Amino acid sequence: MTGLLQALALVACAPLLQGAMRSLRARLAGRPGPSLLQPYRDLAKLCGKEALLPDDVSPLVRVAPGIVFGVALTFAATVPFFAAGALEATVDVVALAFLLGLGRFVLTLAALDTRSAFAGMAASREASFGGLVEPALLLALLGAAVSGGGTRFSALSTLPLDAASTLAFAAFALVVLVETARVPIDNQETHYELTMIHEGLLLEYSGAQLALLQAAAYVKQIAFFAVAALLLPGDAWWAHAGWMAALAIAVTLVETALAKLRLFEVPQVLGAAFILAATSIGLHVVGGLG
Amino acid sequence: MSAALRRIGTAALAAVSATAAFLAFLAFSHGATTFGTLAGPIPALDLTVGVLPVAGVFCALLAVLDAALAAWCVRRGRAIETLLLAAFSSAMLLVLCAQSVALFFFGWELCAIVSVFLVATHHERREVRRAAFVYLVFSQAGAACVLVALALLGAHAHSPSFARIAAAAASLPQTTRYAVLGLSLVGFGSKAGLLPLHFWLPRAHPVAPAHASALLSGGMLQIALYALLLVATILAAPAGAAAGIAFIAVGTLTAVGGVVYALVDRDLKRLLAYSSVENAGIVTLALGAAMLLVAKGNPLGAALALTAASFHALNHGLFKGLLFLCAGAVADAEGTVDLERLGGLRRNLPWTAAAMLVACLAAAGLPPLNAFSSEWLTFRSLLQLFALHDEPTGFAALGAIAGLALAGGLAPATFVKVFGIAFLGRARRAPKAEQARERFDTSSLATSGLAACCVALGVFPLVAFAPLARVSAALTGSAPPALPSLPLLPLGLVLLPLLGAAASFALTRSPNNARRTATWTCGSPVTSASQYTSTAFSKPLRRVFSTVLAPAQTRTFGSGESPWFPKHIEYRTENRYLIDEAARRLGALTIRAARRSRVVQSGSLRLYLAYALVAMIVAVGAAAR
Predict the structure, then answer these.
(1) What is the complex's ipTM, to 2 decimals?
(2) Structural domain boundaries enclosing A190
């Protein structure tokens, strides 16, 4: 029951986190920025709008937003925050990586089905970078799982504070930047189709379907932050919340300080995350192993 | 004539399917069963027929594949191919129920020879003849290794019977054991497409007709893995930690190499063949983990790894058979399997598209399809290796997990490309795209049946997991491994996404709340040329793996009157296949050496007599010493 409540709380706060990061980024850039509640208003407005669909597309385009949102909900229902996740027994870290892969698979197919060159471009990038970030994600979480003693998410909160866990966290932090479409990798606020990755997939969506996809992105983001907070020391809910706030500020600072990477340099970041995670497991193997 | 042949062939396929199903039932319910021995002229040629519990899952796979093929062949393919398929699958069944060296080798050779005919079906094309020739050479070289390995085992046990060999396995000298395992890895592994002996496979499997490719990649590959499993866990058990690490290394290399080549291929059937290579690698690395866990004294963990290996082999056989059959339907309807020329197939082939979507999800290892469960199990098995507190084991496990994660990440990218480019969007330039129509006959039954199997095993993995765990536990001598969260896992995982899909579908049902408009492409018309192509789609990953693939691009501009406004631009990109090149060079060297050695063969009788004399003197001299 508490697990369910916690999932609802995470989902409810997801747009708030997005709003907070957006207005912080605006402040850092010297703009007044939108209100904290702007993402809620955006979602509500989108839900009231008429939806347009490209003609002559397969049902995949119609079901994709629901599947992606369902995947994000499942993710949010798995992560422990103040209680064990409601789906804790069903979804372990390996299953999570594959589940995120399912969401990506369906959304990419839907983009390809719209026949637009922009969507195809975004699909190609999403599939490629997704194909490289998923191994890094798996390896980072498995590195933590090897140190923590189990592939369940609750086992991740009992990590020892050592070099291996630090590297696993570093790898995971890079993964979070990619998965939440943050600046050095992607840009959530771009309106230039040629540089879009995640936004490019959504080009043909509008109305409630777009709202679902955006909400899914917010929920996925807060869930990723929650997992990152889990990897850091501290087991109480306020420690998690504190770490999440710190991470949100850190990510926003990174976004403000760095320029977007050239597209073909992104795989190097993904490769770095992969190597960091592998090194973390390697350290665990060498270090006599707790 | 042809109709009668077809009827005989279909009936034979159905009969083989029924026999295989019966054998699978026997293997699972009665354990090891021996039906009898046909004494040969010398004891080494005794033919013993029986079935081991490990063979059960492979018999079941063969039963399903043959049933699907029987349905497929009622209307599709040529009559003679149907007969060859029946002969091929009975040869595979013979391998599965061979319990003595001679019978096993006979079945193994029969598989090789019958399948060469299938590969060479379109022998009027030069590359087909070449692929068939390379396949034949490889089969025979592999068979020689297999024969030596089996002979070594039989010589040690003083008996050709597998039961005796297994009983004597514990006392095998270490060098013999490693020789046997090494030769099996070469002999059986080359048939399964393990790197670096894989390069014949993506040539030979795709050039056969689709239903034959389905049996080659879905069936034969799994039989080779069965043989590997048989040698590593029964005939030469316990294999030892070093062999386990070697298997893990080869498997990891194969899994990653296979998926990287699959990713960039544009020929649908060759892409599928490379994906077979990948999956053979996954099974091999799980098998290696099992060997390692046995050697390090964790039989329960080893049983889990063995379960993962055999479960993945089963799953791969099912979805790969389905993928090739769908490719066959595409080839029949469109006249090509070139991804650059296919598009929008779901419009003309809705039934095939649905089956293909299931198969692609399965091949990508995504929930709730069957391969997800077995890949998940493989991860779980590999994680156990870390608990052994041993550095070589830990690093082997690290390599395997990294490789498996990479393969698991790149496989979806590959199959998004397959389905998204070929089946979604709009038609491109297939030769017969206009008149392509779905054929609703028994062949649709074949594809939907296989798709149903993939879904059923995905949603209820316990159906396969429980018996496989029992068999694996009996092999490693432990209690059957149990997994608390498995029964609920795939369904629980996708419950919310499925609900979401239903809601989102309902949301856009009536045109009132989802108006249909043209796709937005900055105002230019949406044509099939604006769609992304297969080569363009894989470009980012081609760049990432450029050290392996070494892609070479050439651009030619056909200039008109002005150099600034080219009439057409031709863009060509070629990947390099380093292992294939090395193999080709080695092949050329071998042939040159063979030509040189012809000098000694003058054809003169006196010279041959002189050779005999010299040989005799040397032999006598050596004996006198």
Answers:
(1) 0.94
(2) 2-286
